[in-house]
């Protein structure tokens, strides 16, 4: 044997080179697809008969042979398209017929091969050649028939059972057939028809790649449950991806380059599969696993022997196992494994069916099956007991016999729905299901109705009770706050006028305190009963508080509503309420308000509450009526609008500051001190005063944000206009209790002070007396920090609370502002004069300055001056001014417009003019 890599040798030159070559009985091409030359001597097997040289390589693509003596002569040639001369096709390769003249003569041959080819030659007689060819055809037929029959059976089973595993198995059998045909050498045909030679390389590559992919797909599909415990998990993915890689190589590489890829991936797959099988056999211990392991062992041994023989050139491995035996036995064992898996799955389903049947029988929920006529064909014991069905029933019991009229229609509507919701139905009167409620679920399945029925009578009653309690008062049975608000909301959407009444019992707390809450509850029940008797059960009546009742009078004019409520007052007053052996005279105050369509629920309740409180202030058993447009009605509406304006997440638009001068009684024309006051301009152009604004801000929880805005705005304004405030000694700013008790705000406050050190000495923070004493230790720490920063502290509204003077000495405040209620009436009540004088004296003795607010006339100012007050503030001096007016003046006295007051102040100024400048400075500086 010699190779011809350049494909340029001629027969004569090849003969010369072959004479020097070593003889061999077997030669590997090592995947080379260039020509090879070999020379052999044909023996004489039978005198007078032809001898046949069998060249069986299935990888031979072309073969030509010459007789070398007495002269070089072509005996025959052939390729996969056809043969000529003495050359003919035989089994997987070619055969050369030699007559008597060519025997014992050296024969020269030239061959071209593809794939892992081995060049061999054998001599045989015509009879033995025919016998071997017949045996080859029988083996091919046996493999083809057996595997195709098994594949058809698998496909038919897959169609009938709609099982994906059988489809994969059938396809694997077909590819197993093609793989066996390749091994035996008859893959050049299919079902007796030759495959075009040009298509054979691609078909072989596709066969190998597809077989590998389906081989592992079948394995993963068959044992997907067991493979969940296999480790490492990545190896499963690696095998799947390797199949994709091999398929890509089959479609893109030629045969010579594809074979090494095939060997590499096949070896990897064999190792992984062996690892899987070892783990499955050790862990699963399933018969299906064992049968499949046996099937795969045969395939692996045969494949491994072929791969190693081809890759390593180990002669004794080639043909170790018959391809026919390998293909049929592995396929049959795989079929047995699948059958065993089917048996296991069937047993598992039977076990599940048994468990389901047991569950069906013992479940406490009624389960049933109805036929197309809504007759019971199957029920479980729970439903039988629930409906009173006999144990033996012949399908004559209809659904409608056990449930209220309309149950069949409800069932039909439920079946039309696409969701899995449930409905509630009621039992039929006169049957065991009478007065019972059931929760029903049902679906259509295979022409029947499958469903469940659960007795929810107790649950339904509990739910109804909860729904009732959600909108009703459990004590009186009337509506609760939520229920009456919903009734008011519905009435607000109706046309026509209507009225809302609010009842508050007088001194009801005394009944509870003296006779116990049980007695109080009985009184409330009786009051509720009288309300229903007086107005009728159709009127929405609710109890929204401990002793507060509200009812809606629809389509009633305000006068008619007031008249009906007056009848209730008379009814309550005329007949006492008896509880056990005691009789109680119950009285109540009623507020009635006129409402219109579109009224808001909370507004209507707020107006009615205000009317009721007005009635209580007028004495017991009173009735107050508020009509649209009444001053009290409009005042409450303004309060509600203000609360709404402050109830937003951000500060309302329209906030601004005004400043009211504070005048020194020692030097009225030499200082300009003032208090900063907050105002809010409403959308209608009106201005909300500080008292209403602060009350609304405290109700809505925005007081901290407003205080922050007031202080930052004031300090920024002082920094900006410091040069124009040469005569200003202090500027008062109020701080609410809510802000003082907010630690986060206090930290922000002192951070703000730190940023305005240049003007902080102007600032005098006013805190009310009650807030200051709420947490005395906290107030002391706050005042100390304020003084450290350079600001001042004034106790506002002093005398209005319940001050214990023992604690006043602990508060190192700089000034006391006398509550305006004492100042405004001091000239009319001697007691007020005494109180004001005491406060002024107390402030002086404690080293504080006194400031009197709400000074509205000259007589009050004279009296305060005689008592020795240090500063005065009020309309007699000036009303709150815009910032521009403050900047345009240099003293508080310059705002005075009353001539008599101006004359009085000038006289006082002359009286004190001789005082020492240093003493004067001490007098006017707080």
Folded structure, characterized:
There is one protein chain. This protein is α+β, with helices and mostly antiparallel strands and 926 residues long. The protein has five domains: 2-120, Immunoglobulin-like (Sandwich); 137-346, Rhopdopsin 7-helix transmembrane proteins; 363-460, 2-Layer Sandwich (Beta-Lactamase); 472-628, Alpha-Beta Plaits; 655-809 and 875-919, TIM Barrel (Alpha-Beta Barrel), CATH 3.20.20. Helices cover 48% and strands 19% of the residues. It has 30 helices and 35 strands. It has an eight-stranded mixed beta barrel with strand order 27-28-30-31-32-33-34-35. It has a six-stranded antiparallel beta sheet with strand order 1-3-10-5-6-7, covered by helices on one side. Strands 16-15-19-18-17 form a five-stranded antiparallel beta sheet, with helices on both faces. The termini are far apart. The model is unreliable at 920-926 (pLDDT under 50).
Number of helical elements: 30
Q: Describe the global form.
A: elongated
What's the β-strand tally?
A: 35
Under CATH at level 1, the class of the largest domain stands as Mainly Alpha
Q: What is the terminal separation in angstroms?
A: 127 Å
Strand order of the largest sheet: 27-28-30-31-32-33-34-35
The CATH topology annotation of the largest domain reads as Rhopdopsin 7-helix transmembrane proteins
| Rg over CA atoms | 56 Å
- In round numbers, the mean pLDDT is 82
Any idea what the CATH architecture of the largest domain is?
A: Up-down Bundle
Total tally of structural domains: 5
Show unreliable segments: 920-926
């Amino acid at each position: 044997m010699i190779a011809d890599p350049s494909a340029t040798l001629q027969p004569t030159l090849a003969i010369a080179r072959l004479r020097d070559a070593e003889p061999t009985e077997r030669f590997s091409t090592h995947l080379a697809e260039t020509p090879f030359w070999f020379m052999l001597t044909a023996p004489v097997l039978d005198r007078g008969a032809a001898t046949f040289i069998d060249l069986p390589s299935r990888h031979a693509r072309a073969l030509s042979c010459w007789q070398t003596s007495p002269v070089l002569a072509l005996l025959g040639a052939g390729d996969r398209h056809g043969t000529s001369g003495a050359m003919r096709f035989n089994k997987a390769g070619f055969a050369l017929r030699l007559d008597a003249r060519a025997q014992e003569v050296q024969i020269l041959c030239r061959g071209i091969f593809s794939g892992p080819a081995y060049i061999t030659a054998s001599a045989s007689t015509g009879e033995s050649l025919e016998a071997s060819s017949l045996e080859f055809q029988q083996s091919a037929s046996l493999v083809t028939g057996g595997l195709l029959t098994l594949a058809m059976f698998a496909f038919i089973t897959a169609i009938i059972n709609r099982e994906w595993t059988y489809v994969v198995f059938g396809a694997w059998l077909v590819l197993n057939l093609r793989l066996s045909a390749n091994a035996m050498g008859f893959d050049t045909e299919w079902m007796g028809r030759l495959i075009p030679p040009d298509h054979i390389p691609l078909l072989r590559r596709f066969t190998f790649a597809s077989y590998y992919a389906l081989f592992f797909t079948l394995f993963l599909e068959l044992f997907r449950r067991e493979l969940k415990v296999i480790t490492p998990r990545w190896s499963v993915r690696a095998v799947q991806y390797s199949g994709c890689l091999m398929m890509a190589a089959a479609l893109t590489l030629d045969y010579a380059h594809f074979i090494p890829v095939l060997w590499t991936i096949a070896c990897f797959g064999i190792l992984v599969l062996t690892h899987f099988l070892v783990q499955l056999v050790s862990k699963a211990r399933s018969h299906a696993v064992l049968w499949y392991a046996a099937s795969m062992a045969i395939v692996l041994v045969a494949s491994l022997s072929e791969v190693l023989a081809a890759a390593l050139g180990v002669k004794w491995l080639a043909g170790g196992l018959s391809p026919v035996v390998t293909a049929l036995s592995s396929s049959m064992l795989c079929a047995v494994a699948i059958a065993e898996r089917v048996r296991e799955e069937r047993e598992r389903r039977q076990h599940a069916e048994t468990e389901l049947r047991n569950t069906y029988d013992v479940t406490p929920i009624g389960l049933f099956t109805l036929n197309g006529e809504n007759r019971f064909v199957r029920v479980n014991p729970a439903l039988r007991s629930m409906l009173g069905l006999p144990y033996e029933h012949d399908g004559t019991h209809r659904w409608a016999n056990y449930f209220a009229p309309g149950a069949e229609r409800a069932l039909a509507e439920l079946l039309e729905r696409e969701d899995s919701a449930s409905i509630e139905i009621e039992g039929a009167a006169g049957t065991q299901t009478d007065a019972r409620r059931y929760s029903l679920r049902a679906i259509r399945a295979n022409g029947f109705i499958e469903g469940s029925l659960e007795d929810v009578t107790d649950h339904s009653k509990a739910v109804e009770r909860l729904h009732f309690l959600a909108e009703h008062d459990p004590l009186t049975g009337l509506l609760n706050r939520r229920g009456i608000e919903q009734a008011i909301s519905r009435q607000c959407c109706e046309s026509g006028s209507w009225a809302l009444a609010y009842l508050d019992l007088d001194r009801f707390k005394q009944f509870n305190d003296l006779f116990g809450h049980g007695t109080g509850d009985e009184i409330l029940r009786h009051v509720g009963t009288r309300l229903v008797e007086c107005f009728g059960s159709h009127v929405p009546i609710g109890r929204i508080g401990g002793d507060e009742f509200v009812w809606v009078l629809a389509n009633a004019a305000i006068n008619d509503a007031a008249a009906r409520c007056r009848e209730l007052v008379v009814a309550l007053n005329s007949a006492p309420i008896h509880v056990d052996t005691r009789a109680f005279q119950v009285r109540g105050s009623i507020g009635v308000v006129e409402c219109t369509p579109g009224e808001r629920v909370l507004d209507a309740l707020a107006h009615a509450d205000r009317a009721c409180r007005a009635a209580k202030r007028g004495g017991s058993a009173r009735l107050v009526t508020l009509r649209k447009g009444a001053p009290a009605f409009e005042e409450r509406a303004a309060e509600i609008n203000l609360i709404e304006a402050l109830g937003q997440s951000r500060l309302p638009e329209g906030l601004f500051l005004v400043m009211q001068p504070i005048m020194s009684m020692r030097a009225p024309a030499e200082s300009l001190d003032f208090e900063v006051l907050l105002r809010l301009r409403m959308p209608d152009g009106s201005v909300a005063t500080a008292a209403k604004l602060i009350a609304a801000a405290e109700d809505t929880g925005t007081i901290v944000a407003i205080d922050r805005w007031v202080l930052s705005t004031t300090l920024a304004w002082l920094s900006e206009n410091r040069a124009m405030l040469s005569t200003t000694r202090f500027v008062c700013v109020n701080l609410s209790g809510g802000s003082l008790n907010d630690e986060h705000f206090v930290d922000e406050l002192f951070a703000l002070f730190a940023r305005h050190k240049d003007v902080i000495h102007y600032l005098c923070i006013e805190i009310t007396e009650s807030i200051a004493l709420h947490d005395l230790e906290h107030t002391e720490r706050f005042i100390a920090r304020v003084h450290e920063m350079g600001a001042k502290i004034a106790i506002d509204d002093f005398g209005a609370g319940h001050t214990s003077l023992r604690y006043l000495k602990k508060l190192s405040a700089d000034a006391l502002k006398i509550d305006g209620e004492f100042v405004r009436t001091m000239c009319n009540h001697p007691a007020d004069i005494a109180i004001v004088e005491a406060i002024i004296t107390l402030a002086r003795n404690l080293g504080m300055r006194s400031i009197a607010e709400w000074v509205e006339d000259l007589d009050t100012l004279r009296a305060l001056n005689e008592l020795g007050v240090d500063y005065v503030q009020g309309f007699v001096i000036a009303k709150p001014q815009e910032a521009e007016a403050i900047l345009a003046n240099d003293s508080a006295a310059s705002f005075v417009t009353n001539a008599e007051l101006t004359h009085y102040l000038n006289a006082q100024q002359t009286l004190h003019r001789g005082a020492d400048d240093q003493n004067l400075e001490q007098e006017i500086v707080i």
